[in-house]
Amino acid sequence: MGTHEEDRSLLEEGLVQSESSGLYTGDGSVDVKGNPVLKSNTGNWRACPFILGTECCERLAYYGISTNLVSYLTRKLNQGNVSAARNVTTWQGTCYLTPLIGAVLADACWGRYWTIAAFSTIYFIGMCTLTLSATVPSFKPPECIDSVCPSATPAQYAIFFFGLYLIALGTGGIKPCVSSFGADQFDDTDPRERVKKGSFFNWFYFSINIGALVSSSLIVWIQDNAGWGLGFGIPALFMGIAIASFFSGTPLYRFQKPGGSPLTRMCQVLVATCHKWNSPLPTDSSLLYETPDKSSAIEGSRKLLHTDELK
């Protein structure tokens, strides 16, 4: 038997481990300072309203620009229908390509929170630039006189498209990160929280549709009837609200540390596959992992369960 001090030390260590397993998350999440987070104070539904509000306002801002953009190019910048349609589709295509940049930065370097924060700021600057281009007289062509409609100058086009493509870059850091950042607020190792994650995605897509509905109806009506400066200014205001909503929830968030670029890991898998093509498959699936415990070799990540589906 050990001494009284040794028994007491073992007992205290066991109590600490027992409390830690119930008080702290089991998925490796941390707070904004990198410390382990308490389940009772962070994440779960208490953090989700800020994320859902951010997504709703961002989608309202995006659709408030994209839904009626062809009309602005033809009526205010006096472009032809073909040129206007080509410019809009090119911009929308860029909006769906830039998430590749945001996703890689979030996974490899910054994490989801700081990627959203940085690209939201870029997005807001783009919205403000677009609003100025539709409001300041020198930034837009003069009104049509009878059937004569002066075209925009190269400088006016440059200001408008600069703001437009800042928005495309900004959405590239928000679109791939917000939904997964919301999912990070639920601990996969807790069965109760894992069930709640499904409900979060239902509310997430509900928020998207609410933003799109308001933009496609109210914002479009304002643009056509009250002016484009106000029609672009209101989405810019909502984008500012989105940023404020996102940052105000910072003390409640759970953060996952960046685990490295998935592109690098995909290449590593392909190289390892070629090198081990003829290696025998061990009967014990636990021998397929590179580390013996529950953690992955990627910091902050857990092991994937072994399956025979692709054997």
Automatic annotation (TrEMBL):
Signal peptide residue numbers: none
Membrane topology value: Multi-pass membrane protein
Name recorded for this polypeptide: Peptide transporter
Pfam families: PTR2
Lineage: Eukaryota, Viridiplantae, Streptophyta, Embryophyta, Tracheophyta
Keywords attached to this entry: Membrane, Transmembrane, Transmembrane helix, Transport
Membrane spanning stretches: 113-135, 155-174, 200-222, 228-247
Compartment(s) where it occurs, according to its Swiss-Prot or TrEMBL record: Membrane
